[in-house]
Structure to design on (171 residues):
């Protein structure tokens, strides 16, 4: 008779929310909301603490324009540009990268992984009408070249954040 024990962990999560309100020198009122999530992994049988993980999400709200940017897990807003007809966002994202190499000596594929922080740029597409009751509002990815062109034409503002992400590999 073969008995298989399936080991598992219990996860306990705690969330905290920080909200910062600022008024930019162009008169725009911006609310930055950050949700921190700390998850502790505890063995079900052993009750051993296997460690904590930390993740976060940002949301940037432009109240008077009724526009919001909702970041995904581990995305951090860095800069925002206000132009006459649209708004642009520069943000960083921590991404999981997995690589594979074939080892000719042992004739096997080896896998390795790491996290890397990359820069992304987006512009707001606002197709709402009739006092913003109908239509849609979304963020579309753009190239760094398009973002830099708009940065030369319009003013860029720094978005307050906790500076958790910097470009490059994460140890």
């Amino acid at each position: 008779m073969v008995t298989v024990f399936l080991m598992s962990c219990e996860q306990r999560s705690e969330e905290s929310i920080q909200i910062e309100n600022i008024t930019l020198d162009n008169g725009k009122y911006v609310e930055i909301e950050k949700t921190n999530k700390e998850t502790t992994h505890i063995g079900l049988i052993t009750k051993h603490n296997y460690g904590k993980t930390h993740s976060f999400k940002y949301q940037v709200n432009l109240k008077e324009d009724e526009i919001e940017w909702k970041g995904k897990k581990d995305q951090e807003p860095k800069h925002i540009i206000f132009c006459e007809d649209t708004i642009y966002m520069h943000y960083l994202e921590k991404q999981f990268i997995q690589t594979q190499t074939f080892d000719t000596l042992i004739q096997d594929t080896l896998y390795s992984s790491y996290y890397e922080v990359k820069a992304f740029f987006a512009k707001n597409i606002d197709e709402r009408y009739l006092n913003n009751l109908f239509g849609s509002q979304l963020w579309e990815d753009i190239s760094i070249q398009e973002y830099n062109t708009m940065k030369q034409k319009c003013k860029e503002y720094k978005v307050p954040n906790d500076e958790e992400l910097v470009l490059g590999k994460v140890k």
Remarks:
- The first helix runs from residue 144 to 153.
- The two ends are 44 Å apart (CA to CA).
